[in-house]
User: Fold this.
Amino acid sequence: MSQVATWTGSRRLLKRLRDVMASEASAQTRLDQIVRVIAADMVAEVCSAYLLRAGEVLELFATEGLNPGAVHKTRLRVGEGLIGDIAAHARPLALSDAWSHPNFAYRPETGEDVYQSLMGVPIQRGGRVLGVIAVQNRTPRSYTDEEIETLETVAMVIAELVASGELVDPGEAKGTDVAILPRRLDGARLNGGLAIGVAVLHQPRITIRQMVAEDPKAELERLRDAVTVMHIALDHMLAADDLAASGEHREVLESYRMFAEDRGWLNRIHDTIRTGLTAEAAVQKVQNDMRARLREVTDPYLKERLHDLEDLTNRLLVHLSGVGAEMPNALPDDVVLIARSMGPAELLDYDRKQLRALVLEEGSSTSHVAIVARALDIPVVGRVANLLDRIDPGDPVVVDGDNAQVYVKPGEDVLQSFRSTMLTRAEQSARYEALKALPPITRDGEAVSLLLNCGLLIDVANLDATNAAGVGLYRTEIPFMMRASYPDVTTQIELYRRILDLAGDRPVTFRTLDVGGDKQLPYFNAGANENPAMGWRAIRISLDRPALLRHQLRAMVAASSGRRLVVMFPMIAEVAEFDQARAILDAELQRAARAGAEPPQAVRVGAMLEVPALMWQTKALLERVDFLSVGSNDLLQFLFAADRGSQQVAERYDALSPPVLGLLRDLVERCKNAEVPVTLCGEMASRPIEAMALLGVGFRSLSMPPAAIGAVKMMTRSLDVKRLARFLDRQIDSPQHSLRELLRAFARDHGVVI
Ligand code: PEP
Ligand code: MG
Assistant:
């Protein structure tokens, strides 16, 4: 069928549906009429509508062709049968031989045994599946893509009917599970910090009143006007002062702005308007298609881009409906925003003065909205399972970004405890601020170097705020993870230069790519590893695919021309690996020299100690490296054979145990004898009691996330480290599970602030 014929056919059907929708009849009568109209129009013997009821059950609400006695009786679980399959995956199915499909579930009461073909699509609204609409035919029939499209358009009309609440009580689908008691939801930490507020569900604020249009030309014009107004509003929003600083958030927002001009997207909306929908309905139809795609996409970069497009769609709907982009005026003063997912600009629609925290059902630390939230400095918890079903608008909420927990309807005790923690933190930050200009020297005069762990430019910008001595760990894979393709040398040079510029005189330790394991690049397939943390990752990939490492080092050498270059290699398991990596760096330095480039002013090359085997090679290793950096996150997981991501074993072994502290003390001793500086850059360094123990076993350099610097500096300045070292010497061979309590007692007895 030609495209024009499809548009004409679709327009005819929509016109009939509009007449049905406009009638005064009850919603049930209108639904009965709709299935009749569809069956006739699509030349199908059967058309049935199933709607979602409480307990994830799909109930037959109307049918033309099946046994009328089955209406309100036939029920299928989501996932059961073909109808359940369509609802579970929120995607259409078109089968010329439905019986041979493995998911076919026969329901004798419907009398459907004579129908061979089936085409069904989900009825959805605002990203939620509300039901399924399906047609069936007696003879084998191959449904066309155009027919699927038409049925999807019809499903949107039905979605509006369902949304009126007349057929199924909207509160019903939440069932009896609506929280009355306080509950705690666990997720992933996307940005630290604490907040108390009131849940506000982020959702498109527009209800589409009219789906079908008389005059496609007029609709196209309305669309054009709305797009222009949207562009102007976006430019205005992205020019806000608090977003002006450079960083990934700016890149995210700028490429988002470019998306608003995307021809492919706008053309799809144009084509949909030509099928007879209003501009709003066409925008929403394209959005529904996108959501269906989103569910299938696994590539993290593409997923983010689709979220951006969804954000733009919502914005366009606001402009089309003419209600203006302002927020509903009844927002509480302390907004904790709850969303399945969100685009980066949607967050900026909220008044920054009211916005306290963000909680998402999806999301990762490199998701665009999380990057913008970091720039705004609000706590974010992501990947909270079934979030939207477990929280209601208006619920009081506490967000603990540090521990990735959300308390819904917290009891007075929880609230009190968070209020006092927040107060204490506010007082503490005032005290840390006062310490900012003071050096991290122990009470007995030992100088300590406190450095930052960074992955985004916005983290590097914290050097000034914390007065840290430099960047002890720059995780280069983080910017790589945010891109659609491998950044070429020029792009990398630019990035590393910006980091060095931001750092000024302070040193930056670049760690070469540590991908594989839990850090996947959308454009690099590290393959399936049974045990990814111990699989093909980090330096193993870099040495097996030396072009990656060569390019990265080439960019680092070029970016450091005339300044200091500090590089370290992750996951070194044997000296030979370090030698190989170092040889590649040397080759790049020579290459730059041959090309006549100004060399780095100084080059320092180190290894990360994350694999225990390296402890038995320290003699040879220390002769080669300029410094060592202990990656305690990985080292501890390999030492205890306890997966660092597993909740079950998370607390089983303690970092403050004799074997860990003994090993670290030995290592520091060997480094001291070899006159090789050593740092620790795992999470261990960021908790004051752990940091205290690390100073106790001899470390004088620790690298940690920016938020930890204040507390660790305060601990350092209150510690008599020589006394602690003597104390630890007496305890370190003890057979105990942990020395934590003893260390706590030491701190208490000696006035160490932990
Ligand atoms: C570590 O393992 O301690 C470390 C700093 O590296 P990452 O956490 O990036 O694996
Ligand atoms: Mg590591």
